Amino acid sequence: MSDSWQPTIVAFACQWCTYAGADLAGTSRIPYPPSVRVIKVPCSARVDPSFVIRAFQRGADGVLVSGCHPGDCHYMEGNYLTRRRFSLAKPFMSYLGLEPGRVRVEWISAAEGQRFAEIVREMTGDIRALGPNRKMRERL
How far apart, in Å, do the first and last CA atoms of the chain sit? Predict the structure, then answer.
């Protein structure tokens, strides 16, 4: 694997919190890897696990699903649904051949631009250690 390889991370970001946090990181000029692709969703609960699998099929090396902190969801209980859904979906994703570190669920508020950048940097390092996601593309 070449030293120049950068993992592609797809970040499904809640429009109320995480997307605003990512925007804050950008406007504050907090550095984070440019290989993250942010997709704005109304709520983290709108992210179906099939979207995550589809992202891997389309070439993502990692997926971040992120929303408001538990108890602060603009849709009352959306983040609780997300937590429950992905705790059940992770074993299925392992069955498909995905390493557990390729999918991550995090809670990031609109005021946490620094936290968004840190999570993306940390996730990029973890995925670089795992290598490119060739298995999932070949399998599906």
Answer: 22
pLDDT, tens only, 94-140: 898 889 899 999 999 999 999 999 999 999 999 999 999 986 666 55
How far apart are alpha carbons 52 and 100 in whole angstroms? 13
As a whole number of angstroms, the distance between CA 75 and CA 68 comes to 10
SS3 11: strand
pTM: 0.93
The CATH number assigned to the domain with range 9-139 reads 3.40.50
* 127: its two tokens: 């995925």
Question: What gap in Å lies between CA 24 and CA 60, rounded to an integer?
Answer: 24
Distances (CA, A) of 27 to 10, 13, 50, 83, 113: 20, 17, 32, 29, 9
Single-letter code of the amino acid located at 136? M
Q: Encode pLDDT of 9-29 as tens digits.
A: 999 999 999 999 999 999 999
Write the CB contacts of 28 (distance below 8 Å, at least 6 apart in sequence): 113, 114
